[in-house]
Amino acid sequence: MSGDRLTGALEFLREAERLKSTLRSGYTSTGRPESVAEHTWRLCLMALVFSDEFENIDPLRLIKLCIVHDLGEALSGDIPAVLQTEDFNKSTQERADLEVLTKALHPTKRAEILDLWEEYEAASSPEAILAKGLDKLETILQHNQRQNPASFDYAFNLDYGQKQTSAHPFLAKVRALLDEETRARAEASKAD
27, 33 in Cβ contact below 8 A? Predict the structure, then answer.
């Protein structure tokens, strides 16, 4: 890697570090706000752990897609699903932010990251379809793992990401288990 290419890569990595401080609407099991980087880490871990369940996929490509899926949020932050409106195009904002974030990279690496993000957004490959489903499952898993406020909307959780999690039989199997957990958490919250 040449000096300029290395300098650009380091600049990009410094900017991407913002994901460590970019908070999501969720919380960890200890009650601390969850960062986008933490969500992405566990999403990648899920992809690794479950990769043997997916035939004819490239596990490395799946993990790459998971790594870049929320990268644009380093600049404008995360917009929780419950706050997204038809008037605001989250995808357009994330794409614009990703273009800014990757500008220091060598054009070939920049194109690779932008292409991976586009593939994820369009769900244009088997790996991207799985990454989208796993993304929804990781969010539901986190919601079920944390201590939720009394106002937490478990019904929203049960509807969240149905299309993406039904795209593969294994994703649907995991979803069924997480939905059982969600229902049990909803019932327990009513009793409190």
Answer: yes
Long-range interactions of 153-158: CB distance < 8 A, separation 24+: 153/82, 154/182, 154/183, 154/185, 154/186, 154/189, 155/186, 156/81, 156/82, 157/182, 158/182, 158/183
What is the pTM for the complete model shown?
Answer: 0.93
Helix, strand, coil percentages (3-state) for the chain, rounded to 5, are 70, 5, 25
> pLDDT by residue (tens digit) across 59-106?
999 999 999 999 999 998 887 766 666 666 788 899 999 999 999 999
Q: Provide the residue type at 159 as one letter.
A: D
What would the pLDDT profile of 106-133 be if each residue is shown by its tens digit? 999 999 999 999 999 999 999 999 999 9
Beta-carbon contacts of residue 162 (< 8 Å; ≥ 6 apart) = none
